[in-house]
# Entry
Amino acid sequence: MCGIVGFLTTKAADIPEFEILRKMRDVLVHRGPDEAGEYIRPLDEKGPFVFFGHRRLSIIDLTTGHQPLSNEDGTVWVIFNGEIYNFKELREELQDRGHQFRTRSDTEVIVHAYEEYKEDCFQYFNGMFAIGIWNEKGGRLVLARDRIGKKPLYYSLINETFLFASELKTIMAYPAFPRKVDPSSFMKYLFFEFIPCPHTIFTNAQKLPAASYLIWDKKKIEIRQYWSPFDHQKCEESYSEAEAELRMMDLLKESVRRRLISDVPLGVFLSGGIDSSAITALAQKEVPGKIKTFSIGFEDPSFDESKYGWLASKYIGTEHHEQTMTPIDLLNIIPRLPDILDEPMADASILPTYLLSKFTREHVTVALGGDGGDELFAGYPTYLAHRFANQYERYLEFLHPAIKFLGNLLPVSDKNISFDFKIKKFLSGIDYPDGIRNSVWLGSFAFLENEKVTSPEIRQHFNRDHLVEEVLSYGEECPCEDRITKLQYLDMRLYLQEAILVKVDRASMASSLEVRAPFLDYKLVEFVMGLPSTLKLKGFTSKYILKKAMRGWIPDEVINRPKKGFGVPIAKWVKRELKELFEDFLSPDRIKREGFLNPEYVTLLLQDHLSNKKDNRKQLWTLLVWELWVNQFHPSF
# Structure
Protein backbone atom coordinates (compact mmCIF):
# COMPACT_ATOMS: atom_id res chain seq x y z
CA MET A 1 0.00 0.00 0.00
CA CYS A 2 1.34 3.38 -0.94
CA GLY A 3 0.73 7.00 -1.80
CA ILE A 4 1.28 8.28 -5.33
CA VAL A 5 1.50 11.69 -6.99
CA GLY A 6 2.14 12.80 -10.55
CA PHE A 7 2.84 16.19 -12.11
CA LEU A 8 3.01 16.73 -15.88
CA THR A 9 3.25 19.97 -17.84
CA THR A 10 4.14 21.12 -21.35
CA LYS A 11 4.95 24.63 -20.15
CA ALA A 12 8.39 25.39 -18.69
CA ALA A 13 7.11 28.34 -16.64
CA ASP A 14 4.72 26.04 -14.73
CA ILE A 15 7.40 23.63 -13.50
CA PRO A 16 7.73 24.25 -9.76
CA GLU A 17 10.82 23.90 -7.61
CA PHE A 18 11.64 20.27 -6.81
CA GLU A 19 11.15 21.09 -3.14
CA ILE A 20 7.47 21.74 -3.86
CA LEU A 21 7.06 18.50 -5.78
CA ARG A 22 8.71 16.52 -2.99
CA LYS A 23 6.57 18.30 -0.43
CA MET A 24 3.48 17.25 -2.38
CA ARG A 25 4.74 13.67 -2.34
CA ASP A 26 5.55 13.75 1.36
CA VAL A 27 2.06 14.93 2.26
CA LEU A 28 1.34 11.21 1.73
CA VAL A 29 3.93 9.95 4.22
CA HIS A 30 1.23 8.29 6.34
CA ARG A 31 0.26 6.15 3.34
CA GLY A 32 3.87 5.11 2.84
CA PRO A 33 6.19 5.65 5.80
CA ASP A 34 8.82 3.10 4.72
CA GLU A 35 10.36 4.70 1.65
CA ALA A 36 10.24 7.65 -0.77
CA GLY A 37 10.92 7.44 -4.51
CA GLU A 38 10.70 9.65 -7.60
CA TYR A 39 11.08 9.70 -11.38
CA ILE A 40 11.73 12.92 -13.31
CA ARG A 41 11.55 13.41 -17.06
CA PRO A 42 12.83 16.83 -18.21
CA LEU A 43 10.73 18.93 -20.58
CA ASP A 44 12.00 18.79 -24.17
CA GLU A 45 10.77 18.97 -27.75
CA LYS A 46 9.71 15.30 -27.60
CA GLY A 47 7.51 15.44 -24.56
CA PRO A 48 6.35 17.06 -21.29
CA PHE A 49 8.01 17.46 -17.94
CA VAL A 50 7.02 14.45 -15.81
CA PHE A 51 7.37 13.97 -12.07
CA PHE A 52 6.26 10.71 -10.42
CA GLY A 53 6.45 10.70 -6.63
CA HIS A 54 5.92 7.64 -4.44
CA ARG A 55 5.61 6.90 -0.72
CA ARG A 56 5.88 3.20 0.10
CA LEU A 57 4.32 0.97 2.73
CA SER A 58 6.27 -2.24 2.14
CA ILE A 59 4.04 -5.33 1.88
CA ILE A 60 5.30 -7.47 -1.04
CA ASP A 61 8.98 -7.86 -2.04
CA LEU A 62 10.43 -5.78 0.77
CA THR A 63 13.95 -5.59 -0.69
CA THR A 64 13.51 -4.90 -4.42
CA GLY A 65 9.94 -3.60 -4.83
CA HIS A 66 10.93 0.07 -5.04
CA GLN A 67 8.89 2.62 -6.98
CA PRO A 68 8.64 4.32 -9.43
CA LEU A 69 9.60 1.30 -11.52
CA SER A 70 10.30 0.98 -15.26
CA ASN A 71 10.68 -1.62 -17.97
CA GLU A 72 14.13 -2.61 -19.23
CA ASP A 73 14.71 0.37 -21.52
CA GLY A 74 13.01 3.01 -19.35
CA THR A 75 10.22 3.74 -21.84
CA VAL A 76 7.40 2.74 -19.45
CA TRP A 77 7.29 4.05 -15.88
CA VAL A 78 4.77 3.02 -13.23
CA ILE A 79 3.67 4.21 -9.80
CA PHE A 80 1.11 2.16 -8.03
CA ASN A 81 -0.97 2.07 -4.85
CA GLY A 82 -2.59 -1.23 -3.90
CA GLU A 83 -2.16 -4.94 -4.45
CA ILE A 84 -2.47 -7.19 -7.52
CA TYR A 85 -3.51 -10.49 -5.95
CA ASN A 86 -3.00 -12.60 -9.07
CA PHE A 87 0.44 -11.17 -9.86
CA LYS A 88 2.21 -14.53 -9.63
CA GLU A 89 0.03 -16.12 -12.32
CA LEU A 90 0.37 -13.04 -14.52
CA ARG A 91 4.13 -13.03 -14.04
CA GLU A 92 4.36 -16.61 -15.33
CA GLU A 93 2.19 -15.79 -18.36
CA LEU A 94 4.28 -12.73 -19.20
CA GLN A 95 7.54 -14.65 -18.80
CA ASP A 96 6.20 -17.22 -21.25
CA ARG A 97 5.68 -14.32 -23.66
CA GLY A 98 9.34 -13.31 -23.30
CA HIS A 99 9.26 -10.60 -20.65
CA GLN A 100 12.24 -10.36 -18.29
CA PHE A 101 11.71 -9.65 -14.57
CA ARG A 102 14.24 -8.30 -12.09
CA THR A 103 12.02 -8.07 -8.96
CA ARG A 104 9.40 -10.22 -7.19
CA SER A 105 6.94 -7.31 -6.92
CA ASP A 106 3.44 -7.00 -8.28
CA THR A 107 4.42 -3.53 -9.53
CA GLU A 108 6.71 -4.98 -12.19
CA VAL A 109 3.86 -7.20 -13.39
CA ILE A 110 1.93 -3.99 -14.15
CA VAL A 111 4.84 -2.65 -16.22
CA HIS A 112 5.11 -5.73 -18.42
CA ALA A 113 1.35 -6.28 -18.62
CA TYR A 114 1.02 -2.75 -19.98
CA GLU A 115 3.79 -3.43 -22.49
CA GLU A 116 1.97 -6.56 -23.62
CA TYR A 117 -1.68 -5.50 -23.54
CA LYS A 118 -1.62 -1.67 -23.36
CA GLU A 119 -4.84 -0.32 -21.73
CA ASP A 120 -6.46 -3.76 -21.89
CA CYS A 121 -4.06 -4.83 -19.13
CA PHE A 122 -6.38 -3.57 -16.36
CA GLN A 123 -8.89 -6.27 -17.18
CA TYR A 124 -6.26 -8.88 -16.27
CA PHE A 125 -5.67 -7.52 -12.76
CA ASN A 126 -7.46 -8.97 -9.76
CA GLY A 127 -6.83 -6.53 -6.97
CA MET A 128 -7.25 -3.08 -5.53
CA PHE A 129 -5.26 -0.39 -7.24
CA ALA A 130 -4.68 3.17 -8.33
CA ILE A 131 -2.06 3.22 -11.08
CA GLY A 132 -0.13 5.88 -12.97
CA ILE A 133 1.76 4.90 -16.15
CA TRP A 134 3.99 7.15 -18.24
CA ASN A 135 4.42 5.79 -21.78
CA GLU A 136 7.46 7.51 -23.25
CA LYS A 137 7.02 6.08 -26.75
CA GLY A 138 3.35 6.97 -26.89
CA GLY A 139 3.93 10.29 -25.17
CA ARG A 140 0.96 9.87 -22.87
CA LEU A 141 -0.10 9.29 -19.30
CA VAL A 142 -2.50 6.51 -18.30
CA LEU A 143 -4.29 6.38 -14.94
CA ALA A 144 -6.48 3.53 -13.71
CA ARG A 145 -8.58 2.52 -10.71
CA ASP A 146 -9.67 -0.92 -9.61
CA ARG A 147 -13.12 -2.27 -10.42
CA ILE A 148 -14.80 -1.53 -7.09
CA GLY A 149 -12.95 1.69 -6.25
CA LYS A 150 -11.03 0.51 -3.20
CA LYS A 151 -8.11 2.83 -3.88
CA PRO A 152 -8.62 6.58 -4.44
CA LEU A 153 -7.28 8.65 -7.32
CA TYR A 154 -7.77 12.41 -7.72
CA TYR A 155 -6.73 14.54 -10.68
CA SER A 156 -6.75 18.15 -11.82
CA LEU A 157 -6.07 19.91 -15.12
CA ILE A 158 -4.85 23.50 -14.79
CA ASN A 159 -4.19 24.97 -18.24
CA GLU A 160 -1.33 22.83 -19.57
CA THR A 161 -0.53 21.18 -16.24
CA PHE A 162 -1.98 17.84 -15.15
CA LEU A 163 -1.78 16.59 -11.55
CA PHE A 164 -2.92 13.35 -9.95
CA ALA A 165 -2.59 11.91 -6.45
CA SER A 166 -3.92 9.45 -3.90
CA GLU A 167 -5.36 12.29 -1.83
CA LEU A 168 -6.80 15.71 -2.53
CA LYS A 169 -4.44 17.25 0.06
CA THR A 170 -1.52 16.54 -2.24
CA ILE A 171 -3.14 18.45 -5.09
CA MET A 172 -3.99 21.26 -2.66
CA ALA A 173 -0.28 21.44 -1.78
CA TYR A 174 0.46 22.68 -5.34
CA PRO A 175 0.60 26.48 -4.92
CA ALA A 176 -1.19 27.22 -8.22
CA PHE A 177 -4.18 24.99 -7.44
CA PRO A 178 -7.32 27.18 -7.04
CA ARG A 179 -9.23 26.14 -3.91
CA LYS A 180 -12.65 27.17 -5.19
CA VAL A 181 -15.55 25.29 -3.58
CA ASP A 182 -18.04 23.83 -6.07
CA PRO A 183 -21.55 24.84 -4.87
CA SER A 184 -23.09 21.78 -6.52
CA SER A 185 -20.62 19.43 -4.79
CA PHE A 186 -21.32 21.13 -1.48
CA MET A 187 -25.05 20.51 -1.85
CA LYS A 188 -24.38 16.90 -2.85
CA TYR A 189 -22.36 16.53 0.33
CA LEU A 190 -25.29 17.82 2.39
CA PHE A 191 -27.65 15.43 0.60
CA PHE A 192 -25.57 12.22 0.53
CA GLU A 193 -23.11 12.94 3.38
CA PHE A 194 -20.34 12.41 0.80
CA ILE A 195 -19.40 13.83 -2.59
CA PRO A 196 -20.05 11.25 -5.32
CA CYS A 197 -17.54 10.52 -8.05
CA PRO A 198 -16.40 12.15 -10.32
CA HIS A 199 -16.98 15.33 -8.29
CA THR A 200 -14.84 16.68 -5.49
CA ILE A 201 -15.43 19.62 -3.20
CA PHE A 202 -13.42 21.81 -5.60
CA THR A 203 -14.47 22.93 -9.07
CA ASN A 204 -11.03 22.19 -10.51
CA ALA A 205 -10.44 18.65 -9.23
CA GLN A 206 -12.12 15.34 -9.99
CA LYS A 207 -12.02 11.72 -8.90
CA LEU A 208 -11.36 9.02 -11.47
CA PRO A 209 -14.37 6.66 -11.39
CA ALA A 210 -13.93 3.05 -10.32
CA ALA A 211 -13.35 0.49 -13.08
CA SER A 212 -12.07 3.25 -15.37
CA TYR A 213 -8.86 4.42 -16.93
CA LEU A 214 -7.86 7.90 -18.06
CA ILE A 215 -5.57 8.88 -20.92
CA TRP A 216 -3.87 12.28 -20.92
CA ASP A 217 -2.45 12.80 -24.39
CA LYS A 218 -1.18 16.16 -25.58
CA LYS A 219 -3.40 18.13 -23.18
CA LYS A 220 -6.54 16.09 -23.92
CA ILE A 221 -8.30 13.84 -21.41
CA GLU A 222 -10.25 10.72 -22.29
CA ILE A 223 -11.90 8.41 -19.71
CA ARG A 224 -13.09 4.89 -20.48
CA GLN A 225 -14.86 2.34 -18.31
CA TYR A 226 -13.40 -1.18 -18.53
CA TRP A 227 -15.75 -3.21 -16.28
CA SER A 228 -19.26 -3.53 -14.90
CA PRO A 229 -20.49 -6.32 -12.59
CA PHE A 230 -23.01 -7.19 -15.31
CA ASP A 231 -20.56 -7.37 -18.26
CA HIS A 232 -19.80 -11.08 -18.06
CA GLN A 233 -22.88 -12.13 -16.16
CA LYS A 234 -24.36 -15.49 -16.97
CA CYS A 235 -27.91 -16.36 -16.08
CA GLU A 236 -27.29 -17.56 -12.54
CA GLU A 237 -30.96 -18.46 -12.12
CA SER A 238 -30.05 -21.82 -13.66
CA TYR A 239 -28.18 -22.64 -10.43
CA SER A 240 -30.07 -24.52 -7.77
CA GLU A 241 -29.84 -23.04 -4.28
CA ALA A 242 -27.32 -25.71 -3.26
CA GLU A 243 -25.20 -25.13 -6.39
CA ALA A 244 -25.26 -21.36 -5.89
CA GLU A 245 -24.18 -21.75 -2.27
CA LEU A 246 -21.31 -24.06 -3.22
CA ARG A 247 -20.09 -21.78 -6.01
CA MET A 248 -20.34 -18.71 -3.79
CA MET A 249 -18.29 -20.41 -1.07
CA ASP A 250 -15.64 -21.55 -3.56
CA LEU A 251 -15.22 -17.97 -4.82
CA LEU A 252 -15.14 -16.53 -1.30
CA LYS A 253 -12.55 -19.06 -0.13
CA GLU A 254 -10.37 -18.29 -3.14
CA SER A 255 -10.73 -14.57 -2.52
CA VAL A 256 -9.63 -14.93 1.13
CA ARG A 257 -6.74 -17.18 0.08
CA ARG A 258 -5.45 -14.58 -2.39
CA ARG A 259 -5.64 -11.83 0.20
CA LEU A 260 -3.51 -13.71 2.71
CA ILE A 261 -0.39 -13.22 0.54
CA SER A 262 1.94 -10.90 2.44
CA ASP A 263 5.60 -10.54 3.40
CA VAL A 264 4.60 -8.72 6.63
CA PRO A 265 2.39 -9.66 9.63
CA LEU A 266 -1.32 -9.97 8.83
CA GLY A 267 -4.56 -10.09 10.85
CA VAL A 268 -8.35 -9.69 10.55
CA PHE A 269 -10.86 -7.13 11.80
CA LEU A 270 -13.39 -9.13 13.86
CA SER A 271 -16.39 -7.12 15.06
CA GLY A 272 -18.54 -10.18 15.71
CA GLY A 273 -20.90 -9.54 12.81
CA ILE A 274 -21.49 -12.22 10.20
CA ASP A 275 -19.29 -10.58 7.54
CA SER A 276 -16.13 -10.19 9.62
CA SER A 277 -16.73 -13.57 11.30
CA ALA A 278 -17.05 -15.29 7.92
CA ILE A 279 -13.79 -13.79 6.66
CA THR A 280 -12.07 -14.71 9.93
CA ALA A 281 -13.25 -18.34 9.78
CA LEU A 282 -12.11 -18.80 6.19
CA ALA A 283 -8.76 -17.10 6.87
CA GLN A 284 -8.11 -19.23 9.96
CA LYS A 285 -8.66 -22.35 7.84
CA GLU A 286 -5.85 -21.26 5.51
CA VAL A 287 -3.07 -20.35 7.95
CA PRO A 288 -0.96 -22.38 10.38
CA GLY A 289 -1.43 -21.49 14.04
CA LYS A 290 -3.85 -18.87 15.28
CA ILE A 291 -4.56 -15.83 13.14
CA LYS A 292 -4.60 -12.49 14.98
CA THR A 293 -8.01 -10.79 15.19
CA PHE A 294 -8.86 -7.28 16.37
CA SER A 295 -11.88 -5.42 17.66
CA ILE A 296 -12.73 -2.46 19.85
CA GLY A 297 -15.39 -2.11 22.52
CA PHE A 298 -17.33 0.87 23.87
CA GLU A 299 -18.41 1.85 27.36
CA ASP A 300 -21.94 2.69 26.13
CA PRO A 301 -23.80 -0.68 26.00
CA SER A 302 -26.13 0.39 23.15
CA PHE A 303 -23.04 0.83 20.92
CA ASP A 304 -20.87 -2.01 22.24
CA GLU A 305 -20.74 -5.37 20.43
CA SER A 306 -17.41 -6.63 21.73
CA LYS A 307 -18.94 -9.75 23.31
CA TYR A 308 -19.74 -11.05 19.82
CA GLY A 309 -16.12 -10.57 18.74
CA TRP A 310 -14.96 -12.68 21.67
CA LEU A 311 -17.66 -15.27 20.97
CA ALA A 312 -16.63 -15.59 17.32
CA SER A 313 -12.93 -15.67 18.22
CA LYS A 314 -13.39 -18.47 20.73
CA TYR A 315 -15.47 -20.51 18.29
CA ILE A 316 -13.06 -20.05 15.37
CA GLY A 317 -9.91 -20.30 17.48
CA THR A 318 -8.11 -17.01 16.84
CA GLU A 319 -5.67 -14.95 18.89
CA HIS A 320 -8.04 -12.13 19.74
CA HIS A 321 -7.07 -8.59 20.71
CA GLU A 322 -9.56 -6.04 21.98
CA GLN A 323 -9.30 -2.49 23.22
CA THR A 324 -12.12 -0.66 25.00
CA MET A 325 -12.51 2.92 23.87
CA THR A 326 -13.72 5.74 26.09
CA PRO A 327 -15.61 8.81 24.86
CA ILE A 328 -12.39 10.80 25.33
CA ASP A 329 -10.54 8.47 22.91
CA LEU A 330 -13.13 9.15 20.24
CA LEU A 331 -13.51 12.86 20.97
CA ASN A 332 -9.77 13.44 20.69
CA ILE A 333 -9.88 12.39 17.03
CA ILE A 334 -12.44 14.99 15.97
CA PRO A 335 -9.97 17.91 15.52
CA ARG A 336 -7.93 15.61 13.22
CA LEU A 337 -10.88 14.72 10.97
CA PRO A 338 -10.08 17.16 8.14
CA ASP A 339 -6.58 15.68 7.79
CA ILE A 340 -7.81 12.10 8.00
CA LEU A 341 -10.79 12.52 5.66
CA ASP A 342 -9.14 14.76 3.03
CA GLU A 343 -12.52 16.12 1.88
CA PRO A 344 -15.84 16.26 3.73
CA MET A 345 -17.50 12.88 4.45
CA ALA A 346 -20.01 12.65 7.29
CA ASP A 347 -19.92 9.00 8.38
CA ALA A 348 -19.20 9.27 12.12
CA SER A 349 -18.00 5.67 12.22
CA ILE A 350 -14.71 7.03 10.86
CA LEU A 351 -13.87 7.62 14.54
CA PRO A 352 -13.98 3.98 15.76
CA THR A 353 -12.61 2.79 12.40
CA TYR A 354 -9.54 4.97 12.88
CA LEU A 355 -9.08 3.77 16.47
CA LEU A 356 -9.43 0.14 15.36
CA SER A 357 -6.89 0.70 12.58
CA LYS A 358 -4.45 2.41 14.93
CA PHE A 359 -4.80 -0.39 17.49
CA THR A 360 -4.42 -3.10 14.85
CA ARG A 361 -1.32 -1.43 13.39
CA GLU A 362 0.45 -1.94 16.72
CA HIS A 363 0.44 -5.68 15.93
CA VAL A 364 0.24 -6.16 12.13
CA THR A 365 0.70 -4.24 8.87
CA VAL A 366 -2.16 -5.83 6.88
CA ALA A 367 -5.73 -6.61 7.95
CA LEU A 368 -8.63 -8.32 6.22
CA GLY A 369 -12.10 -6.81 6.71
CA GLY A 370 -15.74 -7.61 5.97
CA ASP A 371 -16.56 -4.58 3.81
CA GLY A 372 -18.98 -5.24 0.96
CA GLY A 373 -20.98 -8.03 2.60
CA ASP A 374 -24.02 -5.83 3.21
CA GLU A 375 -24.16 -4.55 -0.37
CA LEU A 376 -23.45 -7.93 -1.91
CA PHE A 377 -25.94 -9.96 0.13
CA ALA A 378 -28.64 -7.31 0.80
CA GLY A 379 -27.78 -6.97 4.47
CA TYR A 380 -28.94 -3.44 5.21
CA PRO A 381 -32.29 -2.92 6.96
CA THR A 382 -33.17 -0.51 4.15
CA TYR A 383 -33.83 -3.43 1.77
CA LEU A 384 -36.62 -4.69 3.99
CA ALA A 385 -37.78 -1.12 4.55
CA HIS A 386 -38.22 -0.66 0.79
CA ARG A 387 -40.48 -3.71 0.71
CA PHE A 388 -42.52 -2.36 3.58
CA ALA A 389 -42.65 1.08 1.94
CA ASN A 390 -44.44 -0.40 -1.07
CA GLN A 391 -47.06 -1.95 1.18
CA TYR A 392 -47.32 1.30 3.12
CA GLU A 393 -47.95 3.25 -0.07
CA ARG A 394 -50.52 0.71 -1.19
CA TYR A 395 -52.58 0.50 1.99
CA LEU A 396 -51.71 3.46 4.25
CA GLU A 397 -50.89 6.34 1.92
CA PHE A 398 -54.18 8.09 2.72
CA LEU A 399 -53.14 8.11 6.40
CA HIS A 400 -49.60 9.35 5.71
CA PRO A 401 -50.06 12.94 7.03
CA ALA A 402 -51.52 11.66 10.29
CA ILE A 403 -48.90 8.93 10.68
CA LYS A 404 -46.09 11.40 9.99
CA PHE A 405 -47.54 13.78 12.59
CA LEU A 406 -47.74 11.00 15.17
CA GLY A 407 -44.24 9.79 14.29
CA ASN A 408 -42.82 13.22 15.02
CA LEU A 409 -44.42 13.06 18.48
CA LEU A 410 -42.34 10.01 19.46
CA PRO A 411 -39.96 10.83 22.34
CA VAL A 412 -36.37 11.43 21.25
CA SER A 413 -33.77 8.81 22.20
CA ASP A 414 -29.97 9.09 22.08
CA LYS A 415 -29.48 5.32 21.68
CA ASN A 416 -27.88 3.72 18.64
CA ILE A 417 -30.43 3.37 15.79
CA SER A 418 -33.28 4.02 18.26
CA PHE A 419 -36.93 3.24 17.47
CA ASP A 420 -37.94 6.88 17.03
CA PHE A 421 -34.91 7.50 14.77
CA LYS A 422 -35.87 4.56 12.51
CA ILE A 423 -39.55 5.53 12.31
CA LYS A 424 -38.84 9.17 11.49
CA LYS A 425 -36.22 8.26 8.89
CA PHE A 426 -38.61 5.76 7.27
CA LEU A 427 -41.39 8.35 7.02
CA SER A 428 -39.00 10.97 5.61
CA GLY A 429 -38.38 8.86 2.50
CA ILE A 430 -41.86 7.55 1.75
CA ASP A 431 -42.71 10.21 -0.83
CA TYR A 432 -39.80 9.34 -3.17
CA PRO A 433 -39.09 6.56 -5.71
CA ASP A 434 -36.82 3.71 -4.59
CA GLY A 435 -33.38 5.03 -5.54
CA ILE A 436 -33.92 8.56 -4.27
CA ARG A 437 -35.70 7.24 -1.17
CA ASN A 438 -32.63 5.11 -0.43
CA SER A 439 -30.39 8.17 -0.47
CA VAL A 440 -32.85 10.20 1.62
CA TRP A 441 -32.80 7.46 4.25
CA LEU A 442 -29.00 7.29 4.29
CA GLY A 443 -28.25 11.02 3.93
CA SER A 444 -28.79 14.18 5.96
CA PHE A 445 -30.48 17.00 4.04
CA ALA A 446 -33.11 16.01 1.45
CA PHE A 447 -34.43 18.43 -1.16
CA LEU A 448 -36.40 20.93 0.92
CA GLU A 449 -33.94 20.77 3.82
CA ASN A 450 -31.04 21.26 1.39
CA GLU A 451 -32.51 24.56 0.27
CA LYS A 452 -33.28 25.65 3.82
CA VAL A 453 -29.81 25.00 5.21
CA THR A 454 -27.82 26.67 2.44
CA SER A 455 -27.13 30.39 2.03
CA PRO A 456 -28.80 32.39 -0.78
CA GLU A 457 -25.48 32.40 -2.69
CA ILE A 458 -25.31 28.62 -2.66
CA ARG A 459 -29.06 28.08 -3.00
CA GLN A 460 -29.14 29.77 -6.40
CA HIS A 461 -27.25 26.76 -7.78
CA PHE A 462 -29.85 24.29 -6.46
CA ASN A 463 -31.17 21.89 -9.08
CA ARG A 464 -33.12 18.85 -7.92
CA ASP A 465 -32.22 16.64 -10.90
CA HIS A 466 -28.55 17.61 -10.76
CA LEU A 467 -28.47 16.90 -7.01
CA VAL A 468 -29.44 13.24 -7.60
CA GLU A 469 -27.96 12.78 -11.09
CA GLU A 470 -25.80 9.88 -9.87
CA VAL A 471 -28.84 8.06 -8.46
CA LEU A 472 -30.68 8.46 -11.75
CA SER A 473 -27.75 7.49 -14.00
CA TYR A 474 -26.73 4.44 -11.94
CA GLY A 475 -30.35 3.30 -11.91
CA GLU A 476 -30.32 3.37 -15.70
CA GLU A 477 -26.96 1.55 -15.87
CA CYS A 478 -28.27 -1.50 -14.03
CA PRO A 479 -29.72 -3.91 -16.64
CA CYS A 480 -31.65 -5.94 -14.05
CA GLU A 481 -35.37 -5.43 -13.60
CA ASP A 482 -35.22 -6.94 -10.12
CA ARG A 483 -35.89 -4.21 -7.59
CA ILE A 484 -33.54 -5.40 -4.85
CA THR A 485 -30.69 -5.92 -7.31
CA LYS A 486 -31.11 -2.35 -8.56
CA LEU A 487 -30.94 -1.08 -4.98
CA GLN A 488 -27.85 -3.21 -4.33
CA TYR A 489 -26.16 -1.72 -7.38
CA LEU A 490 -27.01 1.81 -6.22
CA ASP A 491 -25.59 1.04 -2.78
CA MET A 492 -22.45 -0.40 -4.38
CA ARG A 493 -21.85 2.63 -6.60
CA LEU A 494 -22.77 5.25 -4.00
CA TYR A 495 -22.75 4.24 -0.33
CA LEU A 496 -20.07 1.54 -0.60
CA GLN A 497 -17.69 3.29 -3.00
CA GLU A 498 -18.10 6.85 -1.76
CA ALA A 499 -18.60 6.37 1.99
CA ILE A 500 -17.65 2.92 3.32
CA LEU A 501 -14.52 2.38 1.24
CA VAL A 502 -13.43 6.01 1.63
CA LYS A 503 -13.85 5.74 5.40
CA VAL A 504 -11.81 2.53 5.62
CA ASP A 505 -9.11 3.77 3.25
CA ARG A 506 -8.64 7.07 5.06
CA ALA A 507 -8.79 5.60 8.58
CA SER A 508 -6.45 2.71 7.82
CA MET A 509 -3.94 4.68 5.76
CA ALA A 510 -3.82 7.42 8.40
CA SER A 511 -2.52 4.57 10.58
CA SER A 512 -0.23 3.14 7.85
CA LEU A 513 -2.31 -0.05 7.80
CA GLU A 514 -3.36 -1.90 4.64
CA VAL A 515 -6.93 -3.27 4.69
CA ARG A 516 -8.12 -5.88 2.20
CA ALA A 517 -11.77 -6.75 1.45
CA PRO A 518 -12.34 -10.37 0.30
CA PHE A 519 -16.05 -9.80 -0.34
CA LEU A 520 -15.09 -7.32 -3.06
CA ASP A 521 -13.20 -9.71 -5.30
CA TYR A 522 -14.64 -8.90 -8.71
CA LYS A 523 -15.34 -12.53 -9.60
CA LEU A 524 -17.39 -12.95 -6.42
CA VAL A 525 -19.19 -9.65 -7.09
CA GLU A 526 -20.09 -10.71 -10.63
CA PHE A 527 -21.46 -14.05 -9.43
CA VAL A 528 -23.48 -12.84 -6.45
CA MET A 529 -24.92 -9.82 -8.28
CA GLY A 530 -26.17 -12.29 -10.90
CA LEU A 531 -28.04 -14.44 -8.38
CA PRO A 532 -31.79 -13.97 -7.84
CA SER A 533 -32.38 -11.50 -5.03
CA THR A 534 -34.49 -14.15 -3.25
CA LEU A 535 -31.23 -15.92 -2.40
CA LYS A 536 -29.99 -12.77 -0.69
CA LEU A 537 -33.17 -11.39 0.88
CA LYS A 538 -35.52 -14.32 1.46
CA GLY A 539 -38.67 -13.27 3.26
CA PHE A 540 -37.44 -11.34 6.30
CA THR A 541 -34.00 -13.00 6.25
CA SER A 542 -31.21 -10.84 4.88
CA LYS A 543 -27.94 -12.37 3.65
CA TYR A 544 -29.81 -15.64 3.30
CA ILE A 545 -27.30 -17.59 1.20
CA LEU A 546 -24.30 -16.33 3.20
CA LYS A 547 -25.92 -17.22 6.51
CA LYS A 548 -26.86 -20.65 5.20
CA ALA A 549 -23.33 -21.27 3.93
CA MET A 550 -21.66 -20.19 7.17
CA ARG A 551 -23.61 -22.56 9.46
CA GLY A 552 -20.99 -24.55 11.31
CA TRP A 553 -18.20 -22.14 10.38
CA ILE A 554 -19.23 -19.46 12.89
CA PRO A 555 -21.51 -19.41 15.97
CA ASP A 556 -25.29 -19.44 15.44
CA GLU A 557 -25.52 -16.48 17.82
CA VAL A 558 -23.48 -14.44 15.32
CA ILE A 559 -25.53 -15.63 12.34
CA ASN A 560 -28.87 -14.93 14.02
CA ARG A 561 -28.05 -11.61 15.72
CA PRO A 562 -29.67 -8.45 14.39
CA LYS A 563 -27.49 -6.11 12.36
CA LYS A 564 -25.76 -3.41 14.36
CA GLY A 565 -23.82 -0.59 12.75
CA PHE A 566 -20.39 0.63 13.82
CA GLY A 567 -21.95 3.68 15.49
CA VAL A 568 -20.90 6.36 17.94
CA PRO A 569 -23.14 8.30 20.38
CA ILE A 570 -23.27 11.57 18.44
CA ALA A 571 -26.79 12.43 19.64
CA LYS A 572 -25.65 12.30 23.26
CA TRP A 573 -22.33 14.08 22.64
CA VAL A 574 -24.00 17.12 21.08
CA LYS A 575 -25.81 17.71 24.38
CA ARG A 576 -22.83 16.98 26.60
CA GLU A 577 -19.15 16.48 25.72
CA LEU A 578 -19.34 18.24 22.32
CA LYS A 579 -21.83 20.95 23.16
CA GLU A 580 -19.26 23.75 23.23
CA LEU A 581 -17.59 22.54 20.05
CA PHE A 582 -20.91 22.49 18.17
CA GLU A 583 -21.92 25.88 19.53
CA ASP A 584 -18.56 27.32 18.47
CA PHE A 585 -18.32 25.84 14.96
CA LEU A 586 -22.04 26.31 14.21
CA SER A 587 -22.24 29.82 15.66
CA PRO A 588 -24.22 32.32 13.55
CA ASP A 589 -21.24 34.70 13.26
CA ARG A 590 -18.91 32.02 11.92
CA ILE A 591 -21.47 30.63 9.48
CA LYS A 592 -22.48 34.05 8.20
CA ARG A 593 -18.84 34.99 7.66
CA GLU A 594 -18.16 31.85 5.60
CA GLY A 595 -21.22 32.29 3.37
CA PHE A 596 -22.12 28.63 2.69
CA LEU A 597 -24.96 28.03 5.16
CA ASN A 598 -28.10 29.69 6.49
CA PRO A 599 -27.21 30.65 10.09
CA GLU A 600 -30.83 30.89 11.26
CA TYR A 601 -31.70 27.38 10.11
CA VAL A 602 -28.48 25.90 11.52
CA THR A 603 -29.19 27.54 14.88
CA LEU A 604 -32.72 26.07 14.84
CA LEU A 605 -31.34 22.57 14.18
CA LEU A 606 -28.93 22.86 17.08
CA GLN A 607 -31.47 24.34 19.50
CA ASP A 608 -34.11 21.70 18.66
CA HIS A 609 -31.57 18.97 19.36
CA LEU A 610 -30.30 20.49 22.59
CA SER A 611 -33.86 20.92 23.88
CA ASN A 612 -34.73 17.32 22.96
CA LYS A 613 -37.42 18.41 20.48
CA LYS A 614 -35.80 16.56 17.57
CA ASP A 615 -33.00 14.12 16.96
CA ASN A 616 -30.80 16.06 14.52
CA ARG A 617 -27.66 14.01 15.08
CA LYS A 618 -27.03 13.27 11.40
CA GLN A 619 -27.62 16.82 10.22
CA LEU A 620 -25.50 18.37 12.96
CA TRP A 621 -22.62 15.96 12.46
CA THR A 622 -22.70 16.64 8.71
CA LEU A 623 -22.49 20.37 9.40
CA LEU A 624 -19.71 20.00 11.99
CA VAL A 625 -17.53 17.95 9.63
CA TRP A 626 -18.05 20.63 6.98
CA GLU A 627 -17.11 23.43 9.37
CA LEU A 628 -14.01 21.59 10.55
CA TRP A 629 -12.95 21.11 6.93
CA VAL A 630 -13.61 24.74 6.00
CA ASN A 631 -11.65 25.92 9.02
CA GLN A 632 -8.59 23.99 7.86
CA PHE A 633 -8.68 23.95 4.07
CA HIS A 634 -10.72 26.84 2.73
CA PRO A 635 -8.44 29.67 1.54
CA SER A 636 -10.29 32.34 3.53
CA PHE A 637 -9.25 30.71 6.83
